[in-house]
What we know:
The chain is α/β, with parallel strands linked by helices and 262 residues long. The chain has helices at 7-19, 35-51, 62-70, 78-81, 108-116, 148-159, 198-206, 254-260, and strands at 28-31, 56-59, 74-75, 84-89, 93-94, 100-101, 118-126, 139-143, 168-171, 173-174, 177-178, 186-191, 211-214, 216-217, 223-227, 232-237, 242-247. It is built from eight helices and 17 strands. An eight-stranded mixed β-sheet has the order 3-2-1-4-7-15-16-17. The radius of gyration is 18 Å and the shape is globular.
Amino acid sequence: MSSELSPIDKAKFVAAKKAVEFIEDGMRVGLGTGSTAAWMVRCLGERVREEGLRIRGVPTSTRTAELAKQVGIDVVSLDAAKWLDLTIDGADEFDADLNLIKGGGGALLQEKIVATASDQMIVISDVSKEVEKLGAFPLPVEVIPFGWQTTQALIEETLVSLDVLGRSASLRMNGDSPYVTDEGNHILDLHLKRIGDARQMAMVLNQMPGVVENGLFIDICDRVVIGYGDGRVEVRDINAGTIEENMVDFVESENLFSDLND
Length: 262
Ligand code: 5RP
């Protein structure tokens, strides 16, 4: 039942529900990772089952692939799809230019490849992820396991010359072991507090040996759909410069919430 969802889950759900309205028959769609993206996958599955929408979905993680198959979405690889019409994904932070920090869920590499191979990217979020300056959320950086401590030291040394407020990095853990991504890599979380120049930071990080990819998504996102716990959604389009507000009805989707309790 929707009444049992927390306000934050309601906000994530309405953002997801609104965003799947942008998906049209025949589209190839990138499917993001995380709790907000999981709502989007469920809402899209509902459209596939109820409207007979024919789409192909390219998941950005093994978790999303499993969920997408469960809800009836035709899952294909990025190489099979070649190019995508639209990617919908969550984010950890977004700013006024729709630049993002992503990777809190550890899937930033596939997420960036998939979003970059898409005509459009829509981010779905609750309002708490909006920031004036990126960087309060620790910036995830995917590094290869070989020599990761040396890579960490190199990153920390380089941060001294960049416009940031914090300069420490920590290895992401999964219990007692280092977290391992779908590609078999590790993640260093950079505690920067505030990133003065996100574009420069993204370029500098990706030039370091040992770094596979960083969680800054610069000039990739086209729209953000921001959800609120009372059902309101705001759609901001950075290219058109428009902001639209709508309401999303929870009642229509009660079956999605009851499925969660099965
Ligand atoms: C995963 C991500 C997620 O999109 C991000 O962490 C947001 O997650 P959630 O929707 O659970 O708050 O980048 O790598």
